[in-house]
Automatic annotation (TrEMBL):
The keyword NADP does not apply. InterPro entries: Rieske_2Fe-2S, Rieske_2Fe-2S_sf. It comes from the Bacteria. It comes from Paenibacillus antri. This is Rieske (2Fe-2S) protein. Keywords: 2Fe-2S, Iron, Iron-sulfur, Metal-binding. The keyword Metal-binding applies. Residues 4-122 form the Rieske domain. GO terms for molecular function: 2 iron, 2 sulfur cluster binding; metal ion binding; monooxygenase activity; oxidoreductase activity, acting on paired donors, with incorporation or reduction of molecular oxygen. Signal peptide: none annotated.
Length: 124
């Protein structure tokens, strides 16, 4: 796994994806409020849409009718084509575990991101 320089920290705004090309792959780099960086492959495993062009949102939970709770604010990316949602930190698809149907493990490929003296690197 090689380490690739992708820019300085100020080139990655908080709360939105910055698309970069590394090693022939297009990645979405996300910077959170706590200055943690995450990288996702810009490809939805459902139909191949550019996942990282989708909106960044929160997870909406409804414990009972008429009651809504927002969780993981700014940590969920929604596919712009069909709305599949992924946790940016883990790359895992977000589902409500109380409602069950035939399911499959679905993740998007994610990569390690590090910051060294204001420079951002991704390992591929």
């Amino acid at each position: 796994m090689a380490r690739h320089y992708i820019g300085t920290t100020d080139q990655f705004p908080v709360g939105e994806a910055t698309l970069v090309q590394v090693g022939g792959r297009k990645l979405g780099i996300y910077r959170f409020d706590d200055d943690q960086f995450h990288a996702l492959l810009n490809y939805c495993p459902h139909q191949g849409a550019e996942l990282c062009r989708g909106p960044v949102t929160s997870w909406l939970r409804s414990p009972k009718p008429g009651e809504f709770q927002y969780e993981k604010e700014g940590e969920i990316v929604r596919c712009p084509w069909h709305g599949w949602e992924f946790d940016i930190r883990s790359g895992c698809m977000v589902v409500d575990h109380k409602v069950r149907t035939l399911t499959y493990d679905v993740t998007v490929e994610r990569f390690d991101v590090s910051v060294d003296e204001g420079k951002v690197y991704v390992k591929i």
